[in-house]
């Protein structure tokens, strides 16, 4: 729709008008007419077009037309002017006898102004796309896309580029969205007119705009990626600068702007930002200019997207600790055989923290012009805390995190508790990027552990992988990867959901017993581990009761996954895995820390003791300074706090008395998926005819899908510490071929 502008004109006076091609000027002829006017006529130069409303009855343009109270003149021009005031339109007014009683003359200068973006998402900034001012999802949608500039072009004293209000390297421009101001017209604007770019206060929190000083299109930008001439890209808009004049180039010109996303969609930000360009008209000295034309463009910030097990791997990450040499060697062999790269985080960086899956989740962001991986850093803040920022953040590798509102996060905030399904269709609704899966407390509980609110809000706000909440608080560590995973499959939906199943384990062991293998031993030959026979497992009524409870928890999640992912029973494979219930005296993550070594615990206790002594001395010093009265007041408050703390501690003790589950033997569902190769925790099950019966069953189930099983010995270095292969590794995968902006809502 053409931009409408009401224009005031005065009779017996010449008016200079700056017109923007594509708009319409409306003149109320009666309001601008001399008193006693009854008729009017209009004349103009060839570059000016006009129409009348209401349309006149008389057809001759030479005859004066009757002037009505609502007579309006609609003016337009088809092309830009070569020089100032090169077009003209006049309105002549007549009295009752058609005598001339006044004349209004407009001198028009036409310019073309277009603020352009890649609204059709083809990687090219087209001119004057009619859809540039709105945003629509789907393959027939439109609207420009913006990336959060969360990588770092520098490697020394690095930080995400979005935290800098300048361009450190010209290579940073490729992470931004190109926006072009195209103008055509006289060499300069009439005196006092100017172009201004502006954004709202709310959008200023989410976007920053730079411009090029050059009017030339950056056709050879790739040749200058590492240039340091950042002075050629001044800041235009930011949190501190909401409006700024921008140059009018004159003639036919293009001026490049570079738009930088500052934050991802979240609870308080829907991802949409609007940038405006206004033409301002002067009134007189001392009075602000007024906008006479505004063009706008709309961007959507690209969401952070997770990658499921069915996508091809790129590289694998593991930690090196003083006791996991066997695990590392076997993982190295598996990754090399699969044809991928293995990255080892050494102890100086991991500080004894081996749980690579818990610290980070790999994802990516994508646009028509640029795509790069982005690591989401969990709020767990343990030994690996520096790894994602210090090691991963860099050129074309982004970083994002969310800081928990509470100081003490739970084990459910670790990212073994964050997974994503392959693409699915549920009751006709397509999820072409899959659905995020998190673990929370059971809906009816009042004291369970949950993933921290800020992380859940972030995941929901990304929108394209609508999350599913499962019940995982029944587990000691509390992660969804302890009872489920996905593997690729050649048929049906292209994948299978694997679920841990105590029922499947008991069925397997009962079959072994019936075949005369009741005396076959689990854990046979393992150091410091007492062997257990199949008969002993089957006769242990307490263990059976505990696994009945575990199976009911998994079945509840099974029903949720079938409903939310549109799965049938044929899409699910049950893996024979037993669990045991243990008195949960502390959070599962804390238990992992305890298992990770006495040295780290003693160091933490030493720091706490030093901090406590320091705080005590500081309090005594303040007491002496403040006097007895304030001391008594503070002692009263301290007593109240102690009572409150005791109440909270009592609640926590009640919660910790709950019994939660852990794997009885290495949890085979907690695997690493590398294409058709699976790295599975070695279960050390009962051996029958020289082969582990659990391994044989696993191979039978997976090889039917064309998958190869490799069993990794993680017993001492991971399983005994409440984790397995998946917990101790992480995989960065290729992004989806499907473009997120084609999701239909």
Automatic annotation (TrEMBL):
Listed InterPro entries: Cupredoxin, PAD, PAD_C, PAD_central_sf, PAD_N, PAD_N_sf, Prot_Arg_deaminase_cen_dom
Single GO molecular function: calcium ion binding
Principal location class: cytoplasm
Residue stretches making up the Protein-arginine deiminase C-terminal domain: 292-742
Acidic residues bias (residue ranges): 585-597
Ranges in coiled-coil conformation: none
Keywords: Cytoplasm
Compartments, record wording: Cytoplasm
Domain Protein-arginine deiminase (PAD) central: residue ranges: 111-281
GO CC field: cytoplasm; nucleus
Keyword hit for Membrane: no
Residue spans of biased composition, Basic and acidic residues class: 598-640, 649-659
Residue ranges occupied by any Protein-arginine deiminase (PAD) N-terminal domain in the UniProt entry: 1-109
Region (Disordered): 585-659
Sequence similarity: Belongs to the protein arginine deiminase family.
Protein name per its UniProtKB record: Peptidyl arginine deiminase, type II
Source species: Nothobranchius furzeri (Turquoise killifish)
């Amino acid at each position: 729709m053409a931009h409408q502008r009401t224009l005031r004109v005065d009779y017996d006076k010449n008016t200079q008008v700056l017109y923007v091609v594509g708009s319409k000027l409306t003149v109320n002829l009666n309001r601008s007419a001399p008193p006693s006017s009854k008729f009017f006529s209009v004349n103009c130069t060839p570059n000016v077009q006009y129409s009348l409303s209401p349309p006149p009855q008389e057809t001759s343009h030479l005859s004066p037309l009757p002037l009505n109270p609502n007579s309006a003149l609609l003016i337009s021009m088809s092309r830009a002017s070569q020089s100032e005031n090169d077009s003209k339109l006049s309105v002549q007014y007549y009295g009752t006898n058609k005598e001339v009683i006044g004349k209004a003359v407009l001198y028009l200068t036409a310019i073309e102004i277009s603020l352009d973006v890649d609204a059709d998402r083809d990687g090219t900034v087209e001119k004057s796309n009619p859809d540039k001012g709105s945003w629509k999802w789907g393959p027939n949608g439109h609207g420009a896309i913006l990336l959060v500039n969360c990588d770092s072009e520098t490697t020394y004293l690095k930080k995400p580029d979005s935290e800098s209000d300048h361009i450190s390297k010209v290579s940073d421009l490729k992470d931004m969205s190109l926006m072009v101001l195209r103008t055509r017209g006289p060499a300069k604007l009439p005196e006092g007119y100017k172009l201004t770019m502006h954004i709202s206060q709310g959008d200023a929190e989410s976007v920053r705009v730079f411009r090029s000083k050059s009017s030339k299109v950056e056709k050879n930008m790739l040749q200058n990626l590492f240039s340091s001439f950042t002075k050629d890209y001044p800041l235009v808009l930011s949190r501190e600068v909401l409006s700024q004049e921008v140059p009018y180039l004159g003639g036919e010109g293009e001026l490049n702007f570079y738009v930088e996303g500052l934050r991802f969609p979240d609870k308080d930000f829907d991802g949409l930002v609007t940038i405006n360009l206004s033409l301002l008209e002067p009134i007189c000295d001392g009075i602000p200019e007024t906008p006479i034309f505004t063009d706008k463009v709309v961007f959507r910030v690209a969401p952070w997207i997770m990658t499921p097990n069915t996508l091809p791997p790129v590289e694998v990450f593991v930690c090196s600790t003083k006791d996991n040499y066997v695990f590392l060697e076997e993982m190295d062999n598996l990754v090399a055989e699969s044809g991928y790269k293995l990255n080892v985080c050494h102890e100086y960086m991991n500080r004894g923290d081996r749980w690579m899956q818990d610290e980070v989740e790999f994802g990516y962001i994508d646009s028509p012009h640029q795509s790069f991986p982005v690591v989401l850093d969990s709020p767990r803040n343990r030994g690996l805390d520096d790894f994602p920022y210090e090691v991963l953040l860099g050129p074309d590798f982004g970083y994002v995190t969310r800081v928990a509102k509470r100081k003490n996060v739970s084990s459910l905030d670790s990212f073994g508790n964050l997974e994503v399904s392959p693409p699915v269709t549920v009751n006709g609704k397509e999820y072409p990027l899959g659905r995020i899966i998190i673990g929370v407390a059971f809906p009816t509980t009042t004291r369970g552990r949950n993933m921290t609110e800020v992380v859940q809000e972030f995941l929901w706000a990304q929108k394209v992988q609508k999350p599913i909440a499962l019940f995982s608080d029944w587990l000691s560590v509390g992660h969804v990867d302890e009872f489920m995973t996905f593997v690729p499959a050649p048929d049906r939906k292209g994948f299978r959901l694997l679920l841990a199943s105590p029922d499947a384990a008991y069925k397997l062991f009962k079959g072994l017993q019936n075949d005369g293998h009741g005396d076959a031993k689990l854990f046979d030959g393992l150091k410091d581990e007492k062997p257990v026979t199949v008969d002993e497992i089957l006769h242990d009524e307490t263990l059976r009761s505990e696994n009945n409870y575990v199976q009911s928890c998994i079945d509840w999640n099974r029903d949720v996954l079938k409903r939310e992912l549109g799965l049938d029973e044929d899409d699910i494979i049950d893996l024979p895995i037993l669990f045991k219930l243990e008195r949960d005296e502390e959070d599962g993550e804390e238990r992992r820390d305890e298992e990770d070594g006495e040295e780290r615990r003693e160091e933490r206790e030493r720091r706490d003791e030093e901090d406590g002594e320091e705080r005590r001395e500081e309090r005594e010093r303040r007491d002496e300074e403040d006097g007895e009265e304030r001391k008594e007041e503070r002692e009263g408050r301290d007593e109240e706090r102690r009572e409150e703390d005791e109440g909270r501690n009592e609640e926590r003790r009640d919660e910790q008395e709950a019994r939660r589950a852990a794997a009885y033997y290495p949890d085979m569902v907690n695997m690493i998926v590398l294409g058709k190769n699976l790295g599975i925790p070695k279960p050390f099950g009962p051996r029958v005819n020289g082969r582990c019966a659990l391994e044989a069953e696993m191979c039978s189930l997976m090889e039917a899908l064309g998958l190869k099983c490799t069993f990794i010995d993680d017993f001492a270095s991971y399983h005994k510490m409440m984790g397995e292969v998946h917990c101790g590794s992480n995989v960065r995968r290729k992004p989806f071929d499907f473009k997120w902006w084609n999701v239909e809502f």
